[in-house]
Design goal:
Blueprint (H helix, E strand, L loop, with lengths): L1 E6 L4 E10 L2 E11 L10 H19 L3 E5 L8 H21 L2 E5 L1 H9 L6 H12 L8 H22 L1
Parallel strand pairs: 1-4, 4-5
Antiparallel strand pairs: 1-2, 2-3
Helix pairs in contact: 1-2, 3-5, 4-5
């Protein structure tokens, strides 16, 4: 099955598309959608959301996933604005997924970390190294948004496979 994992953000949205079959997973494409202003030009949230929508729809056309897995919303009490910004990005992504009629899975960060590293409190570097090992990469994926997106795709593929066996 072809699974697209998404680590949403308003500055950088990581993505990783994999083919998952049983215990084997292979990367099809991975990268980031960068929504940061070029130079000193500041762009509004609505401008960045429009760009995210266009780029994400192009990605869906290109990789043709059967499942799109998006990291669930979480908030840290010290950074409430981060959750709000992530919510804007997630809304654009979820709408595009539903409009395409693609199966959607939402995974909490704890579930993804547990699936990939064995425990739910892994640090960014641990996730990068685990993804490197699981996919047999010569280097850890960078930036960490790419590693997170690949981990989301892998966790979703594993969940979908186990549901099919049940």
């Amino acid at each position: 099955m072809r699974v697209l994992g998404i680590d949403p953000g308003l500055r950088i949205t990581g993505y990783g598309c994999i083919v998952h079959a049983g215990e084997r997973s292979e990367i099809v494409e991975a990268g980031v959608i960068r929504l940061v202003a070029a130079g000193s030009e500041r762009r509004t949230v609505s401008e960045r959301l429009m760009e995210l929508d266009a780029d994400f729809r192009g990605l869906l056309d290109r990789v043709e996933p059967e499942i799109v897995a998006v990291e669930g919303l979480f908030a840290h009490y010290k950074h409430p604005a981060t959750a709000i910004a992530m919510g804007h990005a997630r809304g654009v992504l979820l709408l595009a997924i539903r409009q395409r009629g693609v199966r959607l899975m939402e995974l909490k960060p704890l579930e993804v970390k547990r699936s990939v590293t064995g425990h739910g409190h892994a640090k960014k570097e641990q996730m990068q190294r685990a993804v490197q090992t699981l996919f047999g990469l010569s280097e850890p994926p960078t930036p960490h948004d790419v590693a997170d997106a690949l981990a989301i795709a892998l966790a979703a593929g594993r969940r979908a496979s186990s549901a099919m066996l049940a």
